[in-house]
Design a protein that fits this description.
Blueprint: H1 3-6, E1 11-12, H2 15-24, E2 28-31, H3 38-42, E3 52-55, H4 59-73, E4 77-82, H5 83-89, H6 91-100, E5 104-110, H7 126-130, E6 136-139, H8 146-158, E7 164-170, E8 177-178, H9 198-209, E9 214-218, H10 220-224, H11 228-238, E10 242-244, E11 260-263, H12 268-275, E12 280-284, E13 308-313, E14 327-330, H13 333-344, H14 350-377, H15 385-398, E15 405-410, H16 415-421, E16 434-435, H17 445-454, E17 466-472, H18 473-476, H19 482-488, E18 493-499, H20 504-517, H21 544-550, E19 555-559, H22 565-577, E20 582-587, H23 598-601, H24 603-606
Parallel strand pairs: 2-3, 2-4, 4-5, 5-7, 6-7, 9-10, 9-12, 10-11, 12-13, 13-14, 15-16, 15-17, 17-18, 18-20, 19-20
Antiparallel strand pairs: 1-8
Helix pairs in contact: 4-6, 4-17, 9-13, 11-13, 15-16, 15-22
Length: 637
Amino acid sequence: MDSQQRNGGQRWARDYVFDALSELGIHRIFGVPGTNEIPIIDGTSYPENQVEYIECLHENIAMGAAMGSARMTGKPGVVVVHVTPGIAHGIGNLFNAWRSQAPLVILCCQQQNELVTQEPLLASNLVDLARQYTKWAHEVRTEQELPMVLQRAFKEAMAPPNGPVFVAIPWEFTMRRIGDGDRLPGITRISPHFTADADAIRQAAVMLREAVNPLIVVGDAAGYAEAWPELQALAELIGAPVSLQTFSSLANFPNGDYHWQGELPGGQKDLQKVFAGHDVAFLCGFSNQAQVTVFKYSDGPLIPPSVRQVYLSNNSWDIGKNYYGECALFGDIKATLPLLNREIGDQPSAAARQRNELLRQKADARRVQWDVYLREAMQQQEIWAVVIADALRLEISERQLEKQFVYVHEAVSDPAPFQYLLPFTEEAAAPISYYCVGGGSLGWSMPATLGIKLEAQGCQGIDTRFVVAATGDGSSLFYPQTWWTAQHRQLGVLYIITNNHEYHTLQMGLQQVEAMYGDAAGYGWHARTQDPEYLRIHRPKPDFVALAKAFGGMEGEVVAHPEAVRAAVRRGLDHALAGRAYVLDMQTVGLDQPPPTPQQANARYRNQPRLDCFHAPDGDAQRNTDNGQPANVPVIF
C-alpha cells in the first residue's frame, strides 16, 4: 500500500507544487535535503506524482543541474533550497541563470511564519537575497495564496524572456491540509512567437540592404529561438560577418557557415576594432553587451558612435540598453527574421556577393591555419586544447554522434579550439548542443552535466547520448561533489580536466590590469610579481582521478602527452556510452615540468589562429591584444 492510500487520498498544500509539475510535464526536482524541505521532497515518493528528487551535495550544484535540465527540455528547472544558507550557496549559478535567461523556479522553505520575526536559526529576509537575480521574488503570506503564487511563478519563468523566479514558503504552510478538489487549475502560457512592428521591420530592411559594410552580432535569444536558418539567410543576403556575444550560452550561429567569426573579444580596444569600419550593426538577441574585463571611459565606447545600430530582441531591456539604436525591433527572433529577410529581397546585391566571396576565402584560409596549428600542437611535450578538441571531433564523427552529443564548456583558458572544431553545424547539431553561461560565475559546467544527462531528449531535436564537459582545473575544484551524484544516478558523462596547475585567465587578467593602469595618471599600480604564487594550484597538485574515485568509485586516467589523447578520449567515450562516468586529467602543462612563467604559458596561444578571420589584417593568423595577450582567451576576474 502506498502512502497516498495509507492517508486516504489526503492532500496537503505542498501538492500544489506537484499539480504545477504535472501540468507542465516536469519530472525532476533538484536540491540538497533539509528538514524544512522534507514535506515537499516527500511528495516525490508518491509514484503517481511522476517526479524524481535528484539529491546533490551542494545547492550550487543543484542550481546548475536544474539549469542543465531546463536547457534540454525548454521547461523550468525546479530547485528546492534550504532557508538562508541554501539560497546563499546557490547564488553563483542563480546569477549565471539570470545572465543566461535560463528558466528556473526556486522554492526556498522559510522557517515557521510565526517565528521568523524572532530571528530563529537560519532565517533571514530571503526575498532580498534572491531579488536582483530573478524576474520575480516573493515570500508566500498564507497557504491559501500558494496556487496563485505558483501559477504566477511558472508562468513568469517561461514568459519571454525566460529567467529564474524565486518563491519562499514558510515550511509549515506546505503541511496544511487541503481538500481533494483544491487543485492548481493550470499554468498560463504566453506564446513567445510575436513579431516586431511592420514599419520598424521595413526601416531595418532599408538600413541593412543599403549598408556598405554590415556586421551581425548574435546573442543567446537567437539560440533559444532556433534561428540558425533565418540568420544564415540574412547573412547571405547582406554579405555580413557574424560574431557571437562573448560568453555565449549556446551555439548561437553554426560554425560550419563561412560567415561565422566566433565570439567577440573581451577587451575594450579589441571590441572597438571589430566594430570599426562597419557602418551598420545588426544586434540580434544581443543581451550581454559589455563582457569586458577592464574599461576606461577615456578610451571611448565599446561600439564606436559611427556605427548605426539596429536591434532585434524579445527583451525590451536589451534593446538600446547601452547605446542608441536607430531602429528597434521588439519581437521573437525566429518569427521576425523571415519578415525582415523578405523585405530585404530574395537575392544579395553585387556588393553583398563580393563580401560573401571575401568571407568564404578567409574562412578557407582559416581552416588551413588551424590544420597547421594542430600539427604544431602534436609535436609538443604537453597537451594543447586543440588536440583534445580534434580528438572529440573525430570520435563524434566516427561514431555518428552528431545529433547525439552535448558539449559543456568551462575550459575558460581554451575556448577557441572547442568552439571551432566541434561540429556545431546545421547538419550535425543544434544551438543547445553547446552549453555555457553568460554570467561567468565559476562552477557551472560539472553541475550542468547532471541535468543534461538526466534528460534523454533535447527540445531542439537532439538527444544526450554523449555528454562531455571540458573544465579547467581551477573551475573543477569548485564542485567535485558533482561526481557523487553522477555515480549515484549512474550518469555516463565524460569529464575532461584541462589541467594547467594555475588560474591562467587570472594570470592574464593581472597583465591586462597593469597594461591599462600601470602607467595611467592617478594610478601607477604595479603588482609585486608577474608570477604570483596565489594564482598557482600546486604544492600539492590536486589528484583529480583519486578525487573522482573517492566520490563513488568513478574511474579515470592522467593523460600527459598529445599522442595519447585520442586513445584516452576513445576510452572515456566508451565508458560514457556504457553509462559510466569517466574523468580525463589532461596535462596542458608538462606533468614533470616546473610551472611555466606567464610568458611561457602564453606561448601556445601565440600561433593559435584567430576565429575572427574577417577582421584580421591580411596575412595575420593571430589576434593579439594591444598588450600582447591572445584575445581568443577571455579573462575572468
